[in-house]
Design brief:
binds 1,3,4-trihydroxy-5-OXO-cyclohexanecarboxylic acid; five-stranded parallel sheet; 5 helices; 5 strands; globular; 18% strand; Rossmann fold
Length: 143
Amino acid sequence: MMKILVINGPNLNMLGIREPDHYGRETYADLVKKINNYCELKGIEVKLFQSNHEGALVDEIQNAYGNIDGIVINPGAYTHTSIAILDAVKSVNIPTVEVHISKVEEREEFRQISYVRLACVKTITGHGTDGYLEAIDYLVGSK
Ligand code: DQA
């Protein structure tokens, strides 16, 4: 059975509460349920992880080494700042898809840089939380 790790970074635990115009009304708990249901249906083993701490995200990526077939990551604001997360993804050599709920390319200038993208096989933006499911499909399809 394919094993996928879905990682969410800072403030994504505030989904449904934070800036609903950008991120919608679905909560993080709703997102977890949606991903779990989808993976159960598809026969995929999935683990979800969320942290507001950069180092905890790096630890989780490192822990995936040798255990996980694909990573879906929304690093939140760390997308635009974190070379550590980029290097972690590069280290483990696991196909990784970058997801953003909002259409980052149509937002502020400071959101136009993505470090993690340099290590990702695909980027999905602006599809809301469906983007996570599309990322999972992509990883399954390229396996
Ligand atoms: C985000 C976009 C980031 O710029 C922002 O800092 C987030 C969420 C998104 O899912 O659209 O926290 O990654």
